[in-house]
Design brief:
about 260 residues; alpha/beta; Trna Endonuclease, Chain: A, domain 1; 2 domains; six-stranded mixed β-sheet; two-stranded antiparallel ribbon; elongated
Length: about 260
């Protein structure tokens, strides 16, 4: 079985002098913006294409084997038509939604990466084992969670669904519990027009992507460099704990044996 992509490898000599390839501990913060959403989109698209392809090939084979008037061929044609209808009605909108979601996270993540050049710590697609936080930004200005939404058109702050706000609140609470520092939750719309930009509802700040960096940069310093570093280390540790350890998956190091 191949090693996971993105895992750097190192060599360790064995007792016989051969080199054993072992994965290094990979950086749990080195994920790309929208990585999970983009992977979900690609997976759904591939499954859709494979399903339609299999049905099309099966229909062709049945037609050539039993003739165009065979009940098997007619049944396969009907199944293909039903599948195409289901894909166009239900699957394609879902695939498109994941595609737009990934694009929104990639756009907002690209903006936040500009802060990394200014000394901010920026983490994308952070998973703590139960859901994921699209983006985390921290510096002396504080800690921030960013939940990205790709909805288009007009957004009125007072009509934002309560589930969206609860999700942002839970992300903030998780980050505060991990770091021991106060954090602020933001919901950022990558392409929508917001009637009250930067307004707060239920303790969650709502912002358009175009105003995100300006809002974050205008915060005054509230954390020392040591506090920022400590918070970052705790986030990295929490992310590492939520991931399967590659060494354990490979059975390395071997379990110790008690001497008789």
């Amino acid at each position: 079985m191949g090693l996971p992509m993105g895992r750097c490898l190192k060599y360790m000599p064995t007792a016989r002098g051969h080199a054993l390839r072992l994965p290094k501990r990979h950086d749990p913060t080195a994920r790309m913006p929208g990585q999970h959403a983009r992977a979900t989109f690609l997976r759904l698209r591939l499954r859709t294409l494979v399903t339609l392809g299999v049905l099309a090939v099966l229909t062709t084979v049945l037609g050539r084997s039993f003739g165009l008037h065979s009940p098997l061929f007619i049944g396969s044609e009907l199944a293909l038509l039903v599948a195409m209808f289901g894909v166009s009605r239900y699957v394609l909108p879902l695939v498109d939604r994941h595609d737009r979601g990934a694009a929104g996270e990639e756009h907002v993540g690209g903006l936040l990466d500009e802060l990394a050049d200014e000394g901010w710590r920026v983490i994308h697609d952070a998973s703590f084992g139960y859901g994921n936080v699209d983006h985390i930004a921290l510096s002396g200005a504080g800690l921030f969670t960013v939940e990205t939404k790709s909805r288009q058109g007009e957004v009125r702050v007072r009509t934002i669904h309560g589930a969206v706000l609860r999700q942002a609140q839970e992300q903030r609470e998780t980050l505060e519990r991990i770091t021991g520092e106060r954090a602020e939750a933001l919901v950022v719309f990558s392409r929508a027009w917001i009637d009250k930009p930067l307004a707060r509802r239920r303790g969650v700040r709502v912002a358009p992507a175009r105003m995100l960096l300006t809002y974050l940069r205008r915060h005054s310093e509230t954390l020392s460099a040591e506090e920022v570093e400590r918070a970052h280390e705790r986030i990295v540790a929490a992310l590492a704990e939520s991931e399967p350890q590659p060494d354990r998956l490979l059975g390395w190091p071997p379990p110790s044996r008690s001497r008789l």
